[in-house]
Design brief:
two-stranded antiparallel sheet, alpha/beta, 9 strands, 323 residues, 7-stranded mixed β-sheet, 39% helix, 17% strand, Rossmann fold
Length: 323
């Protein structure tokens, strides 16, 4: 006998108003779109259709179904051992930075292929470019230091020809460089986005994975599941999120006139003080912090620009409103 049915909110109100995933997953529709998902859908204790989110295969099939149902992606896959990104959270980032561009453009979000976005660390999943292209028609440059991840992203593009026309992948040979070697000096980029590696060591990353799995399983888990582990460059780097973002900020100064808005996600609020100090040190002229809520987790996007007011107006006239 199932327990008394739980009353769920009609929408996940913490998500962006334009996010297609504010409502609870409609597994009936998703399993029609992607029949392979059906074997992972079970009734939970409340009699609701749900998924075992501790099962990496179930989560991968959910992602496939969401991308196919909402974004017309016929093929999507990631290699075993690579991070399976939460689609609603990635979608939220894209909508928030679209608003950022719109707020700089008299309330009108610039759309279409003339808008170029750079995804720093596109990953094996290529999710940010997929969503940004489908929702706003933007063009993308996806940078990556991991050849296997780049190969996976390339396979996704090759199997979805409409994406291949708008998304270019570039290999970053030097993992210490973020923009150099990827962003050309005479190449205007309207927006950069990044979901930086969070942890400061492999051990810390593994501990975080085990905490996540223990929470999902409602019992202590001592062995990480491969697909939830993620690769080194996805989950950790020396110094973790704080050092990575500070380095990104320092390097962004070298490309100050190339880009309108640099942005990055900041997962840990305690890192903000250090990030703001780094932005002050490089002379960022405008800094914005955009809160994001994803379930019980809170996060934020930090955005900065070096463009003066007259440079911003010129950018709008020549790139966003010239067509």
């Amino acid at each position: 006998m199932p327990e008394l049915k739980k009353v769920h909110p009609a929408e996940k109100t913490v998500l962006h108003p334009r996010n297609k995933h504010r409502e609870r997953y409609d597994f009936k529709k998703l399993t029609v779109t992607c029949p392979e998902l059906a074997k992972y859908v079970k009734l939970n204790a409340y009699g609701d259709e749900s998924l075992d989110f501790a099962n990496s295969k179930a989560v991968k099939w959910l992602n496939k179904a969401l991308l196919k149902h909402y974004y017309n992606i016929e093929y999507w896959d990631i290699p075993t051992g690579y991070l399976c990104p939460p689609i609603p959270g990635r979608v939220d980032y894209i909508h928030h930075v679209a608003d950022l561009l719109g707020n700089s453009n008299n309330g009108k979000i610039p759309t279409g292929p003339k808008i170029k976005c750079m995804d720093i660390g596109v990953g094996a999943s290529c999710v940010f470019p997929i969503v940004g292209n489908k929702e706003y028609g933007w063009s993308f440059i996806g940078s990556e230091t991991d050849p296997a991840a780049l190969e996976s992203a390339s396979k996704i593009l090759n199997n979805n020809p409409f994406l291949k026309r708008s998304i270019e992948l570039r290999f970053q040979e030097n993992p210490m460089d973020i923009f150099h070697g990827i962003m050309e000096r005479n190449e205007p980029v309207d927006l950069t986005i990044c979901n930086p590696p969070f942890h400061a060591s492999l051990e810390e990353a593994q501990e975080g994975t085990l905490r996540k799995l223990s929470s999902l399983n409602h019992k202590k888990v001592t062995t990480p599941t491969l697909n939830f582990g993620g690769q080194t460059t996805e989950l950790w780097c020396e110094g973790g999120e704080e050092r990575f973002v500070r380095s990104m900020i320092r390097q962004s100064k070298q490309f100050a006139s190339n880009c309108f808005w640099f942005t990055t996600q900041i997962s840990k609020q305690s890192h903000l003080k250090s990030v703001y100090e780094a932005l002050e040190n490089v002379g960022a002229l405008d800094v914005k912090t955009i809160p994001m809520g994803q379930g019980t987790k809170t996060s934020r996007i930090v955005a900065w620009t070096f463009l003066k007011e007259d440079q911003q107006k010129s950018w709008l006239n020549t790139r966003w409103n010239a067509f």
